[in-house]
Write a structure and sequence with these properties.
By secondary structure, this protein is of the alpha/beta class. It is built from five helices and four strands. A four-stranded mixed β-sheet has the order 1-2-4-3. About 9% of the residues have low confidence.
């Protein structure tokens, strides 16, 4: 499966290896129940301001969030706005456009990782897994569905850890 990653998270959050991010995303998609997504998956890693803009424009929510998932295979998905500049850098190689797009905010991941005492890279990987699970049909809007989704997240994350597919990531304090 094709996976495209775009890292625009700011200087505070240097991009890890894109090849490793793509391998992690492809493996997470398979573990989430999306082994063959026509056109593949695009993951954009944005700053808090960038994801807040997407959150407001497409979901009507104010402020940054952890991950937003768009499944273009679904007829009711709003899709990306005409002229949006996040995934228009995809190579024009004749392949179909990505069918699933995730927007992840590493700054939110870092804040949550610190709060929860977890590695930052694990939190970013969890957001990718969470977004892919939404595309696979999981939801977390009620307590029962949320428990099911949390078990699926654990399964995906255990698989990524076991395979050594979570790329190392760092955060730099910038004054």
């Amino acid at each position: 499966m094709k996976a495209v990653t775009i890292w625009r998270a700011g200087r505070e959050f240097p991009a890890p290896s894109r090849a490793r991010l793509r391998r992690m995303t492809a493996a997470a998609a398979g573990l989430a129940g999306l082994p063959d997504v026509p056109g593949g998956v695009c993951v954009s890693f944005l700053s808090p301001a960038g994801i807040a803009r997407v959150n407001e424009d497409f979901l009507g929510h104010h402020g940054p969030t952890d991950v937003i998932s768009f499944d273009y295979r679904a007829e009711d998905d709003p899709g990306f706005a005409e002229g949006a500049d996040d995934c228009d850098v995809l190579p024009d190689d004749g392949d179909a456009d990505p069918s699933v797009e995730l927007i992840v905010c590493p700054a939110v991941a870092y804040e949550q990782a610190v709060k929860r005492g977890l590695p930052y890279a694990e939190e970013v990987a969890l957001y990718v897994a969470h977004g892919l699970l939404h595309a696979a049909g999981y939801d977390d809007l009620n307590p029962k569905a949320k428990r099911v989704m949390r078990r699926a997240e654990k399964r995906v994350m255990d698989g990524l850890r076991k395979a050594g597919l979570i790329p190392p990531m760092e955060h730099k304090d910038i004054a």
